[in-house]
Amino acid sequence: MCGIVGYIGNKDAKEILIEGLRELEYRGYDSAGLAILNSGEFNIYKAVGKLKNLEEKTKDFTTSGFSVGIAHTRWATHGKPTELNAHPHLGEESYVVHNGIIENYIELKKELEKKGVGFLSQTDTEVIVHRFEDNKKTIADNFKAFETTINELDGAYAILLVTKSSDDKIFFAKKGSPLLVGKDSNGNVYFASSDTAVIGKAEEVYYLEDDEYGYAGKNDIAVFDKSGNKKSLTFKRLSTNKLSAQKEGYRFFMEKEIYEQSEVIADTMLGRLKDEEVFFEEIDDSFFDGIDEIKFCACGTSYHAALSCAYLFERVAKIKTSVEIASELRYKEPLLTKNTLFVVISQSGETADTLETLKMAKKAGLKTLAVCNVDNSSMVRTADTTILTRAGIEKGVASTKAFATQVCVLWMLSLFMAGKKGTISKESLKEQLHLLRELPKVLKVKQKLHDRIKKLSKRYLHGHGFFFIGRDVFYPLALEGALKLKEISYLHAEGYPSGEMKHGPIALADPELFTIALLPQNLLYEKTKSNIEELSARDSTICIISSKNEEIADDFIKIDEHSHYMLEFFEMMVVLQLLSLEISVRLGNDVDMPRNLAKSVTVE
Q1: What is the per-residue pLDDT across 157-167, written as a single tens digit (0 to 9) for each?
Q2: Which residues are catalytic?
Q3: At what angle do helices 565-586 and 401-421 cross, to 10 degrees?
């Protein structure tokens, strides 16, 4: 969820870049940096951690007259959050900032190293600036050298590059990662990865399309398509509402975050999915030595993510797995043995109950792992090692993309561990890797589906409660669906294993009891269908989420047909999130800030 800002003009470039980065802080980051070319010389500053650290470093630095500047907030993917890995990255006389991933960077890096080029960072980004400077040696025109460089890159990117020998220009390119260029009436030019960074500065903006690239100078902006044809640009007036800009056209942050899940899942998998294996650079080869059991510990939504993936660890990695609610584990005098890997899961890394259980495990001498979204948080600092989920900042109190990325990370971790233990065949592992690569496509919200849920939601505003039911991994998903509805609609909802209905809860069945039934085609279909029929026979109102419509359904939400139950899991997850959202909207509730709740629970 990195952020990019660029500027060309006569104003104080440092202040414009810093202010722009500040408006992008909501996206999440672990380091920041800027480079400004002024009077033929570069000034470069980087800092790990929050933006205030970069502000402190630059407090005595100012610019005067015309200058060109680029800036970046980095969310670590390749390489740890350090100053060397922070952007901008340096060549001999050029700097670059980049969002996305260069998939062929290893091949390009090896070619450059053979030519004697030295690399300072662990990032894929640094290869861009060195490749550009290598092309400059044989191509006299700097823009042509940049164009050649872009054509050599595979992957996704938003790129800004500045070089001394074109000291009045920024070269830029966009493919699969957002980037815009803006201008004002005084000839100043602005770049950003989100328009919120340039509100109050740029008056008009052009949102670059994939495969577009170009150059900009004062009063001079040129954009080319992938065939090299110069485009005629139509700029749009820029909104002046920063909060609205952060929502990027969505009604609520929660809605935006549901739609973002496709992107953040792709970020979560960056550098971790290889051709034939899952790779976590955070985990040493010896980390699982002596481990015979895994104990997950979490609260709320993170607890549901752990429950979901406990099935996978036992099924795929063949290791004994248990899941604990943190607030309960703290006081039950648990037996914690040193052959147990203790895994805590948290969006914020500050959840008080979960943090205390982590400290208990450390004190008992267990190996510990944190799955977390916030680097440098308390859990990250306390655990032996950490896997970051890379969801970016989640503003909606009801978690959506944090849950999706947690399940994705744990799924990958189960495969990583299975590979280390030899409990999965090469063919099965390749199949699972293929499924993971399908997730960004599965998580793209289809407008037709959203419209169907929006229309259906008006039927579920009353009644005396909801049952969300499912089997196997779909039971924890049912729990999560019920929690989402409770959090933002204030309607009573419970998640149950489908097979438990006849052991008591079915006594509540009547037309005013709404049953949201998760019916996957690839896992226990007939068993789950039988449980739904039991409720239907008692006149419960049934809404089935499945790829196949059944006559017992009063309402039906169709998902795509998939080859594996985990793909069904993720698409059903999106349906449950959207259903809760639309019911809450119809009830007139504050979707992003539900009553009585806080985003990070730092008290017991």
Answers
A1: 899 999 999 99
A2: 2, 599
A3: 170
